[in-house]
Design a protein that fits this description.
alpha+beta; 1 helix; elongated
């Protein structure tokens, strides 16, 4: 399951929330610390793993 990173303005914390892609598209993310639903998405790193050598 993908992990999405957000910043919560209410509690001033960065949070990581596991959710499906369809849940993410609906925008149902809530801060696990305070329950705030107006979270700012953070840009995360993406490292694909392949079996081929570059």
């Amino acid at each position: 399951m993908p992990l999405y990173e957000y910043f919560c303005d209410k509690c001033q914390k960065e949070v990581t929330i596991p959710m499906t892609i369809s849940e993410h598209e609906k925008g149902n993310a809530a801060c696990p610390e305070c329950g705030n639903r107006t979270l700012k998405p953070l840009v995360g790193a993406f490292f694909p793993k392949t079996s081929r050598k570059s």
